[in-house]
Amino acid sequence: MGWKGFITEGSLEEESLLELVSILERKKGRLKIEVDENNKEKFITEAIKKIKLKFFIPLVKEGVIYILFKDRMFKFSKGYPELETARKYGETMGIPAEKMYFELLFENPFE
Question: For residues 66 and 58, what is the distance between their CA atoms, to the nearest angstrom?
Answer without folding.
Answer: 6
